[in-house]
Amino acid sequence: MANDDDPCPCGGGTYGACCGRAHRSEPAATAEALMRSRYSAFALRDADHLLRTWHPDTRPDTLDLPTGRRWTRLRVLATERGGADDTEGTVEFRAHFRDRGEPGVLSERSRFERVDGAWHYVDGDVHPSQSS
To answer: Is the residue at 132 inside a domain?
Structure first.
């Protein structure tokens, strides 16, 4: 786990002021904030946060995170709805990584819904991407 003063993996400031709050179970205010916290959870290998914030209808029973993958940069491309007054939203992003030393990019358009007042990841459409 990261220290509060460390840079947040999502690029949004310090870990404590950014994704650290969501990782300590404070609900994300927006779909984008949840997506950023989930990216950071992948980077920090926090499977508990990922499962806790996954929509109950699509959540897997377990989650195995690849040990050879290191997440290096997040770029949010677009958000649609997902604000404080919305019940659903989408976030399109590119997540850069190195997998056993080889660079890669995951491009996804993720869907989020509120469940009992808290944002949850539903699913995403993954698209082939070129690094940028």
So the answer is: no
Domain presence at residue 12:
no
Q: Is the pTM of this model over 0.90?
A: yes
Residues 6+ apart with CB under 8 A from 85: none
CA distances from 105 to 28, 53, 90 (A): 25, 23, 19
Quick: pLDDT tens for 107-116: 999 999 999 9
Rounded Cα–Cα distance for residues 81 and 53 (Å) = 18
Contact status, residue 101 vs residue 108, Cβ threshold 8 Å: no
The span from the CA of 126 to the CA of 110, in Å, is 8
**Strands 88-99 and 102-115: what pairing?**
antiparallel
CATH assignment at residue 71: 3.10.450.50
Query: φ and ψ at 105, to 5 degrees?
Result: -140, 130
CA distance 121 to 25: 15
Name residue, tokens 């508990």: 48
List of the chain residues with pLDDT < 70: 128-132
